[in-house]
Design brief:
Blueprint (H helix, E strand, L loop, with lengths): L10 H7 L4 E2 L9 H4 L20 E6 L5 H9 L3 E7 L2 H14 L4 E5 L14 E7 L17 H10 E11 L2 H13 L2 E7 L2 H4 L7 H8 L5 E7 L33 H21 L11
Parallel strand pairs: 1-4, 2-3, 2-5, 3-4, 5-6
Antiparallel strand pairs: 6-8, 7-8
Helix pairs in contact: 1-4
The chain binds S-adenosylmethionine (SAM).
Pathway: tRNA modification; N(7)-methylguanine-tRNA biosynthesis
GO biological process, one term: methylation
EC number: 2.1.1.33
Length: 292
């Protein structure tokens, strides 16, 4: 999932060039995003001195990548402030460039780790958090790095408005199933789910990964959830590998989700070897079963 840079791309130079659209210290604006950025155009990425007025809502695109979804969303709703957050400097350089070219006054990118998102916002400051194609981190030992782990969802509760929502889109059915479990553990109410979001919401802005994965035949699984009553006794869920959410019969898997290509390839190989071994031992080519 590492982006290759074009030949003459110098990261530091790009970050410098688009510094007006990339905020490296978002914690300085916690609690005053809607006012501080209205209208954008001050000396810092976040807008500098407060203008007269405020944005109607502040929404966060968490793990925004190169920012296509953030910028297109901002273009469609000029009275909403769209903040894109990503921990990858290369993504920030691309996203900053996109924001600069757009000429929009309601989009800023935050170079920040999503696991520290609560430092960047005051309680209840966000009306929505988008998680578009979050990195799946499929292995069990990486489970806590998933941005939909229940411990993260508990953090998002603090910065979401009481009627705020979380929207997930992913090509990964395993990550989608995992997220539904984690949402329940963190006391969220699921408002809707979709197992084919491109068909159900054809006019939604698309993200870079959505475009790319759809071209590979991906279906998009999506949901929206809102924080319900806080669980009285929350404890982190057990760490689970996403392989546990794959169908038993891999033949049924007509699309391999992002990040699980090697796992599925290994599992299919192992099954093929076991099958071949079993059939060698049986003394007949097919063991009486239909094989094709
Ligand atoms: C698969 S990409 C999807 C990017 C974009 N949302 C899209 O749909 O095109 C996942 C992105 O999440 C970012 N990411 C992963 N973990 C993160 C974290 N803890 N904090 C911030 N960004 C993170 C990665 O750097 C990457 O850009």
């Amino acid at each position: 999932m590492h982006a290759r840079t074009p030949k003459h791309f110098v990261l530091e130079e790009r970050l410098e060039r688009y510094a007006d659209f990339i905020e490296p210290a978002p914690q300085d604006y916690a609690g005053r995003w809607a006012e501080a950025c209205y209208p954008l155009g001050g000396t810092s990425a976040a807008g500098g001195a407060a203008g007269a007025g405020r944005f109607r809502e502040v929404r966060l695109d968490l793990g925004c990548g190169k920012g296509a979804f953030t910028v297109e969303s901002a273009r469609r709703e000029p009275d909403v402030l769209f903040l894109g957050m990503d921990g990858e400097p290369l993504c920030m350089a691309y996203a900053g460039g996109l924001a600069a070219k757009s000429g929009l006054k309601n989009v800023v990118f935050l170079a920040w780790d999503g696991h520290r998102v609560t430092e960047a916002f005051a309680p209840g400051e966000l009306s929505r958090i988008y998680l578009n194609f979050p990195t799946p981190f499929p292995r069990k030992r990486q489970a806590r790095r998933r941005l939909t782990d229940a411990t993260c969802l508990m953090e998002y509760r603090r910065i979401l408005a009481p009627d705020g929502t979380l929207r997930l889109k992913t090509d990964s059915h395993p990550l989608y199933l995992f997220t539904l479990e984690e949402l329940a553990a963190a006391g969220y109410q699921v408002l809707w789910t979709s197992e084919d979001a491109r068909a159900d919401f054809p006019n939604d802005p698309t993200s870079g990964y959505e475009e790319r994965l759809a071209a590979n035949g991906a279906k998009v699984f999506a949901l929206e959830a809102t924080p319900g009553p806080e669980p009285a006794h929350f404890s982190p869920t057990p760490q689970r590998g996403l392989v546990e959410y794959l169908p038993q019969d891999l033949e049924k898997l007509d699309y391999v989700p992002l990040g699980m290509e090697a796992t599925v390839w290994n599992m299919r190989n192992r099954e093929a070897k076991l099958w071949a071994k079993g059939h060698k031992g049986s003394g007949s080519a097919s063991g009486g079963e239909k094989i094709c």
